[in-house]
């Protein structure tokens, strides 16, 4: 078995592997761990396809970022699946699928070779894996322990999934619903499975009234408008289209408002155009702002009077929810997924179904028309979210590492 030299110093090395094509929740959490875990004896290296210049500001200077993208990504496979679904002749579908799988294995050898090289060059002790099966094989051959971080539901019990996940040394689930999906399998031992809610930022930047007004002016938002923020990548399951149905009803009763979409559409092209067309059809052009991908997320949360989380598929966690809370902004969370674990309806926010526009509109109006209620939500939410601090989270993660090593 190929092995790496044991780290002789008191400082150990952890390698975070994330294959997400944009700066999503799994990479955000990796950054928050990496920035804090050095206090518990671990130096961090991160492998990601996201351009370093776009994410460097999220990481401390001592975190090493390695840019590497798989030649064939999950996006490519999703696009292939859509095409295969249109082929009615089953034998042809299977032939194309098998051929593609073989090509994927061959092409992605470059990626696994890069992982192996990174492990050796940085003398890695343990790998924290967000979403890359390919790297498990490399780690096992090199005798490196692997932590698998479930950032989504385990809804696949295929032979491939069983083969690789069963070789991991510990598992972390980001919410109770994600934990349950993993625990229900027959190949994830419960004694190796830990639930840890995602951490908040170590600290946020508080912006002045002048700075907020300046940013509003840049976005074309007048100071008399009630601002509703919708944060997240522009992708179908995040529910921005469904939000527009509720917002149309809200606007009819609360016209002095702006809905601000914060997030990019680089990963799944075409969805923004669907939003633009629907906005035009609903005659909401004067009430919608696209902020795009932003690096100053705190600034944009603080522009909002209300934040709406509107995922239409079960959300594994919902960082938008806790980020809004930390920035002291009232939140309406989707009923689909882990939002119900973070928001206690009527106490620290509202829970609503984005697939029910009347329901979502009602709670948006209830919040917009009641400043005292919004302030009460903020106080209660702040008490909850303070328990999710990144330093304590990193301490819990380091304890898992130490136990595995």
TrEMBL record:
<dbReference type="GO" id="GO:1901135">
    <property type="term" value="P:carbohydrate derivative metabolic process"/>
</dbReference>
<keyword id="KW-0328">Glycosyltransferase</keyword>
<dbReference type="InterPro" id="IPR001296">
    <property type="entry name" value="Glyco_trans_1"/>
</dbReference>
<dbReference type="GO" id="GO:0016757">
    <property type="term" value="F:glycosyltransferase activity"/>
</dbReference>
<dbReference type="Pfam" id="PF00534">
    <property type="entry name" value="Glycos_transf_1"/>
</dbReference>
<protein>
    <submittedName>
        <fullName>Glycosyltransferase family 4 protein</fullName>
        <ecNumber>2.4.-.-</ecNumber>
    </submittedName>
</protein>
<keyword id="KW-0808">Transferase</keyword>
<feature type="domain" description="Glycosyl transferase family 1">
    <location>
        <begin position="214"/>
        <end position="381"/>
    </location>
</feature>
<dbReference type="Pfam" id="PF13439">
    <property type="entry name" value="Glyco_transf_4"/>
</dbReference>
<feature type="domain" description="Glycosyltransferase subfamily 4-like N-terminal">
    <location>
        <begin position="24"/>
        <end position="200"/>
    </location>
</feature>
<dbReference type="InterPro" id="IPR028098">
    <property type="entry name" value="Glyco_trans_4-like_N"/>
</dbReference>
